């Protein structure tokens, strides 16, 4: 995770990944939206053998070189190899790209995806981009449940500290849910911890309950009474 001020464009941070701690390894797959389409940067990823999947822009200037593979599903409208024909884009990305078109019948929506991966199926390419929506859901959950909109302090250190605490808390919740196979949602688990945060109770007892029965959790140490 990298944090910047609101004036910094996302793709500027992505371009600096080699100077940051998250340098991308070969065979990594980036699922990115159209804001990251910078063909010079995308070609630098390709030369480093890093794959990317993104939405294609409507005004993309390209020429169809040939069909990548015949569509195997009726929802796959196209799966073509293309070459960029724009004066700048063709210079910045001189090699072939793959253009996959998928029609989502339930939503009555047609979407085209651009990728440099020639091995995965067209459906898998679409699924990789669809998984990117989990990022949006993650930020929505953070804002709704961890009260990240209101900060306890206004200094850079106070703001960054609160953001990192929220991230660590979310990751701990995910880890507990995954390791214990907790049946309910992350939100439910967060509510339960909020209810017993100042009580000393068994974690196993908590995970067998829900937010309405959380008061049944027992203290691991019997309470002593004075007479």
How would you sum up this structure, described in words?
The longest helix is centred in the last third of the chain and has 25 residues. The chain starts with 9 loop residues before the first helix and ends in a 20-residue tail after the last helix. It contains 8 helices and 6 strands; from the N terminus they run H-E-H-E-E-E-H-E-E-H-H-H-H-H. The chain has 227 residues and is of the alpha+beta class. The radius of gyration is 24 Å and the shape is elongated. The protein is 36% helix and 17% strand. The mean pLDDT is 82. The chain folds into 2 domains: 122 residues, no CATH class; 82 residues, no CATH class. It has a 6-stranded mixed beta sheet, sandwiched between helices.
């Amino acid at each position: 995770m990298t944090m910047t001020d609101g004036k910094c464009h996302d793709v500027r941070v992505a371009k600096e990944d080699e100077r940051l701690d998250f340098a991308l390894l070969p065979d990594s797959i980036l699922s990115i939206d159209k804001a990251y389409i910078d063909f010079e940067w995308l070609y630098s990823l390709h030369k480093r053998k890093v794959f990317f999947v993104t939405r294609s822009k409507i005004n993309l200037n390209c020429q169809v070189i040939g069909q990548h593979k015949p569509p195997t599903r009726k929802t796959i409208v196209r799966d073509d190899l293309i070459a960029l024909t724009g004066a700048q884009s063709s210079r910045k990305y001189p090699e072939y790209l793959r253009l996959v078109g998928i029609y989502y019948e339930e939503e009555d929506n047609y979407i085209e995806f651009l990728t440099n991966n020639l091995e995965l199926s067209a459906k898998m390419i679409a699924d990789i981009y669809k998984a990117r929506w989990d990022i949006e859901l993650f930020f929505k959950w953070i804002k709704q449940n961890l009260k990240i909109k209101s900060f306890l302090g206004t200094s850079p250190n106070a703001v960054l500290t609160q953001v990192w605490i929220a991230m660590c808390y979310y990751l701990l919740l995910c880890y507990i849910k995954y390791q214990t196979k907790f049946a309910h949602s992350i939100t439910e688990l967060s509510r339960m911890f909020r209810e017993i945060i100042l009580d000393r109770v068994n974690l196993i007892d908590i995970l067998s309950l829900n937010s309405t029965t959380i008061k049944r959790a027992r203290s691991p140490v019997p309470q002593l009474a004075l007479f």
